[in-house]
Amino acid sequence: HGTSTINSQGHLEIGGVDATELAAQYGTPLYVMDEGLIRQRCQEFMQAFRLSGLRFQVAYASKAFCVMAMCRIAQEEGLSLDVVSDGELYTAIQAGFPVERIHFHGNNKTPQEIDMAIDAGIGCIVVDNFVELQMLNAIAGEKGKTVNILLRITPGVEAHTHEYISTGQTDSKFGFDLGNGSAFRAVQEASELSNLSLLGVHSHIGSQIFEVEGFKMATDKVALFAAEVRNKLKVVFKVINLGGGFGIRYMEGDTPLPVSQYVKAITDAIKHNFAAQDYPLPEIWVEPGRSIVGDSGTTLYTVGTHKDIPGVRKYVSVDGGMTDNPRPALYDATYEAMLANRATEPNAEIVSIAGKCCESGDMLIWDVNLPNVESGDLLAVSCTGAYNYAMASNYNRIRKPAVVFVQNGQADVVIKRESFQDIVANDVIPERLKMVTS
Ligand code: LLP
């Protein structure tokens, strides 16, 4: 991947830095992010949109990996930012991200989150339901402000990675349904609320999608809806947001398309649909998360114990697990791995990689082909940049790993490894328990 290579010592090298040196200097488990590759992915989106000639924003879906250094990179590369909580918003603001380029999502934004967003000067709030619509208008009114909004609609296109289900009505907690008329009513209501400025609509069909059909189907449906709304309500959408979900290659057999092809499919579908209706071409927004940071990440682990069950399986345990990568346990996600310290040695055995948490489900990889694994080896699991650090936990009171960015032979810590003090930082022993003796 990207700028990963194998150096003359037979070690994995990421961004010009030897993985064994990273492990020695920063310890393991360690999240290593290839900054050059992150920037390359950002540029691929920006470049593909520029080629389309349409006005656009590429909003990095920060939920995939939201840390201040990443916000800086997104900003430098000219991206906007999608946040879904006060914590992500706070991170972006602390990083100095231009707030007018932040979009706020979520199906249950609290009044406090809305306050915070409006006070900060949020660029756009993606309104999810009727309750929020009214609440947002009221809060904006109290503040004497007008807030830009998109309405999240459920287009009735659902992507299950490879397959799409096109339904009249979708059973989802998100958004206004297109099929049952609630999206139409939402536009009507929103356009009558005086403290809201309705820019357009938003649709997100799923995640880790490989084919373009789903995006095309969603674009077609949104365009039909735009036409209906213009005819019946005289409301014209200036912005169409088509969400994220662009797939990446976790495994050898995965076949995502280059970023440029997803963007071209979307922008072509927009041009085709809107031009056909003589509709002023809207600005197109997308929200990639995984496809910006996913393949840039590698997690380094130190191999510890192993357990060989003859004729059944060999379990090889590493010093991390579901606390730093819950995706295999949660989604049956699969990963590839290699020995970073013996990268040129031929594979010799099929083993399963276990984490160190006290539960059987804490497996990182079932069946991976590796050289004969020994205690002390450095295992590198690839494609861990998205939804790994972001979803990490302190289960078993395990400290969260550090995150380093590597680029041009240089490594920089962007998240420090948690300390034991961090682990107990929010623990409080009530007075009445302080005197307890056994
Ligand atoms: N926009 C919206 C409204 C979303 O809900 C999401 C992801 C994205 C954009 C970014 O999607 P992406 O480009 O990253 O596929 N934790 C799961 C993924 C959950 C995705 C949730 N929404 C995982 O680890 O696979």
From TrEMBL:
<feature type="binding site">
    <location>
        <position position="359"/>
    </location>
    <ligand>
        <name>substrate</name>
    </ligand>
</feature>
<feature type="binding site">
    <location>
        <position position="387"/>
    </location>
    <ligand>
        <name>substrate</name>
    </ligand>
</feature>
<keyword id="KW-0028">Amino-acid biosynthesis</keyword>
<dbReference type="GO" id="GO:0008836">
    <property type="term" value="F:diaminopimelate decarboxylase activity"/>
</dbReference>
<feature type="binding site">
    <location>
        <position position="387"/>
    </location>
    <ligand>
        <name>pyridoxal 5'-phosphate</name>
    </ligand>
</feature>
<feature type="binding site">
    <location>
        <position position="327"/>
    </location>
    <ligand>
        <name>substrate</name>
    </ligand>
</feature>
<dbReference type="GO" id="GO:0030170">
    <property type="term" value="F:pyridoxal phosphate binding"/>
</dbReference>
<feature type="active site" description="Proton donor">
    <location>
        <position position="358"/>
    </location>
</feature>
<dbReference type="InterPro" id="IPR022644">
    <property type="entry name" value="De-COase2_N"/>
</dbReference>
<dbReference type="InterPro" id="IPR009006">
    <property type="entry name" value="Ala_racemase/Decarboxylase_C"/>
</dbReference>
<feature type="binding site">
    <location>
        <position position="290"/>
    </location>
    <ligand>
        <name>substrate</name>
    </ligand>
</feature>
<keyword id="KW-0456">Lyase</keyword>
<feature type="modified residue" description="N6-(pyridoxal phosphate)lysine">
    <location>
        <position position="63"/>
    </location>
</feature>
<dbReference type="InterPro" id="IPR002986">
    <property type="entry name" value="DAP_deCOOHase_LysA"/>
</dbReference>
<comment type="function">
    <text>Specifically catalyzes the decarboxylation of meso-diaminopimelate (meso-DAP) to L-lysine.</text>
</comment>
<comment type="pathway">
    <text>Amino-acid biosynthesis; L-lysine biosynthesis via DAP pathway; L-lysine from DL-2,6-diaminopimelate: step 1/1.</text>
</comment>
<keyword id="KW-0210">Decarboxylase</keyword>
<feature type="binding site">
    <location>
        <begin position="287"/>
        <end position="290"/>
    </location>
    <ligand>
        <name>pyridoxal 5'-phosphate</name>
    </ligand>
</feature>
<feature type="domain" description="Orn/DAP/Arg decarboxylase 2 N-terminal">
    <location>
        <begin position="37"/>
        <end position="293"/>
    </location>
</feature>
<keyword id="KW-0457">Lysine biosynthesis</keyword>
<comment type="similarity">
    <text>Belongs to the Orn/Lys/Arg decarboxylase class-II family. LysA subfamily.</text>
</comment>
<feature type="binding site">
    <location>
        <position position="331"/>
    </location>
    <ligand>
        <name>substrate</name>
    </ligand>
</feature>
<keyword id="KW-0663">Pyridoxal phosphate</keyword>
<protein>
    <recommendedName>
        <fullName>Diaminopimelate decarboxylase</fullName>
        <ecNumber>4.1.1.20</ecNumber>
    </recommendedName>
</protein>
<feature type="binding site">
    <location>
        <position position="245"/>
    </location>
    <ligand>
        <name>pyridoxal 5'-phosphate</name>
    </ligand>
</feature>
<feature type="domain" description="Orn/DAP/Arg decarboxylase 2 C-terminal">
    <location>
        <begin position="32"/>
        <end position="385"/>
    </location>
</feature>
<dbReference type="InterPro" id="IPR022643">
    <property type="entry name" value="De-COase2_C"/>
</dbReference>
<dbReference type="InterPro" id="IPR029066">
    <property type="entry name" value="PLP-binding_barrel"/>
</dbReference>
<dbReference type="GO" id="GO:0009089">
    <property type="term" value="P:lysine biosynthetic process via diaminopimelate"/>
</dbReference>
<comment type="subunit">
    <text>Homodimer.</text>
</comment>
<dbReference type="Pfam" id="PF02784">
    <property type="entry name" value="Orn_Arg_deC_N"/>
</dbReference>
<dbReference type="InterPro" id="IPR000183">
    <property type="entry name" value="Orn/DAP/Arg_de-COase"/>
</dbReference>
<dbReference type="Pfam" id="PF00278">
    <property type="entry name" value="Orn_DAP_Arg_deC"/>
</dbReference>
